[in-house]
């Protein structure tokens, strides 16, 4: 069986080092916002190339906290893509704001930037692109749209699937260093993942840094002094210790993902399969292909013992919880991915033999 993502195999060599580190924390007992958290915040901001990083409990909270820090009027509009994980939209609702959906570009996992203009209104306060599957949205183009409006609109990006991804033409400029605020999930299966829930927010702006640090800690920066109605959304110290160890491998593992994706791009050649087009600087959190007869493909992959995933089988406006907010709205490119998309294994530890097998099996699909 070729596993979709074999975390145990990937991290095996790290386990002993991690256990040693956790024992140190047991001896020290600094479980809440301990030394490892501030270390991780420093390490991650250095990796991204931004001024500040703030650890929090998970990626959904990262988005909610970022939006709450902007202190916007209730029901202000946030423009986001129609295809992403539910969290992007849920976090917007949880912050008391209103998501406005824009379709993806055809056969690309990223928002159709040209369609953003038609969704701008007087209530638009945030544009929230998602670097889905690690494919980078051209943030500079979105910045120029914002500039042309001559209004205060914030750029807050969902980087939950794009740790280490960079804007193609500026190789060194990583996502997380470009927008007003950037939000990362550190869920175990992400390119950088903890061994439980975790998240991190990055910014270059000192004021956002201070407010978000405060909000994630029940609105407090000093014991018993609560300046804001905050959340308990602190990054766990043990998770931070694990992340400090795993961050060292992120670049190497991202490069492996890119190599596997390049192989699929070059050698999967089957008219029944449509390949998506990914940005330069993509870190391939997922590698998604489209096929008209998905149920047949699923049976075929099962028969050939290749695990697969769906990311995601419902677009945002198709989710049961959200349908009522987007009545009669259609987003054909997002719906196509929901209906025809299959995520292939892109585990950085896949062997060449496994990659070749996956490619061969797909090329023989009829
Ligand atoms: C695009 C996107 N946004 C937000 C999230 C939410 O992150 P978390 O699961 O850590 O809350 C995820 C995680 O799956 C995601 O993929």
List keywords for this structure.
Aspartate Aminotransferase, domain 1, 366 residues, globular, three-stranded antiparallel sheet, Aspartate Aminotransferase, domain 2, alpha/beta
Biggest sheet statistics: 7 strands, mixed
Question: What is the name of the CATH topology of the largest domain?
Answer: Aspartate Aminotransferase, domain 2
Q: Estimate the global geometry from the Cα principal axes.
A: globular
Number of helices: 12
Cα separation of the termini: 21 Å
Model description:
This protein has helices spanning 7-11, 15-28, 35-48, 59-69, 86-94, 139-149, 206-215, 237-247, 250-267, 294-303, 332-340, 352-363; strands spanning 52-56, 77-81, 98-102, 124-127, 154-158, 181-185, 199-203, 220-222, 225-226, 274-275, 287-290, 341-344. With 366 residues, the chain is α/β, with parallel strands linked by helices. The protein starts with 6 loop residues before the first helix and ends with a helix. The protein has two domains: 7-247, Type I PLP-dependent aspartate aminotransferase-like (Major domain) (Aspartate Aminotransferase, domain 2, 3-Layer(aba) Sandwich), CATH 3.40.640; 250-363, Aspartate Aminotransferase, domain 1. The longest helix is centred in the C-terminal third of the chain and has 18 residues, at 250-267. The strands form three sheets. The protein has a seven-stranded mixed beta sheet, sandwiched between helices. A three-stranded antiparallel beta sheet has the order 10-11-12. The protein has a two-stranded antiparallel sheet with strand order 8-9. Helix 4 runs parallel beside helix 5 and helix 4 (59-69) packs across helix 7 (206-215). It contains twelve helices and twelve strands. Residues 58-60, 84-85, 87-88, 130, 158, 160-161, 185, 187, 197, 199 line the site of pyridoxal-5'-phosphate.
């Amino acid at each position: 069986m070729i596993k979709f993502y074999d975390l145990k195999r990937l991290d095996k060599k790290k386990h002993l080092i991690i256990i040693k580190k956790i024992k140190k924390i047991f001896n020290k007992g600094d479980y809440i916002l301990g030394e490892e958290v501030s270390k991780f915040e420093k390490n991650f901001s250095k990796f991204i190339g931004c001024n500040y990083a703030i650890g929090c409990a998970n990626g959904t909270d990262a988005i909610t906290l970022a939006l709450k820090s902007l202190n916007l009027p209730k029901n202000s509009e946030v423009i986001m893509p129609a295809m992403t994980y539910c969290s992007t939209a849920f976090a917007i609702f949880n912050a008391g704001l209103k998501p406005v959906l824009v379709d993806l570009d055809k056969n690309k996992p990223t928002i159709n930037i040209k369609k953003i203009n038609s969704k701008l209104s007087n209530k638009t306060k945030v544009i929230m692109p998602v670097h889905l599957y690690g494919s980078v949205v051209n943030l500079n183009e979105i910045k120029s749209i914002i500039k042309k409006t001559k209004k205060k609109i914030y750029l807050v990006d969902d980087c939950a699937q794009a740790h280490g991804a960079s804007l193609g033409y500026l190789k060194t400029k990583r996502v997380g260093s470009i927008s007003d605020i950037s939000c990362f999930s550190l869920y175990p299966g992400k390119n950088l993942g903890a061994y439980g829930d975790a998240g991190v927010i990055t910014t270059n702006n000192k004021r956002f840094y201070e407010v978000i640090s405060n909000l994630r800690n029940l609105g407090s920066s000093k014991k018993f002094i609560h300046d804001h109605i905050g959340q308990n959304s602190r990054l766990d110290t043990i998770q931070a210790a694990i992340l400090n160890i795993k961050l060292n491998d992120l670049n190497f593992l991202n490069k492996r993902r890119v190599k596997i994706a390049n192989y699929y791009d070059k050698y999967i050649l089957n008219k029944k399969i449509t390949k998506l087009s990914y940005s330069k600087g993509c870190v391939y959190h997922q590698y998604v292909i489209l096929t008209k007869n998905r149920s047949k493909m699923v049976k075929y992959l099962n028969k050939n013992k290749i695990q697969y995933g769906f990311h995601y089988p419902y677009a945002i406006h198709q989710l049961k919880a959200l349908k009522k907010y987007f009545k009669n709205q259609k987003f054909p490119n997002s719906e196509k991915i929901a209906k025809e998309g299959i995520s292939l294994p892109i585990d950085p530890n896949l062997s060449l033999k496994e990659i070749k097998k996956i490619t061969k099996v797909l090329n023989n699909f009829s």
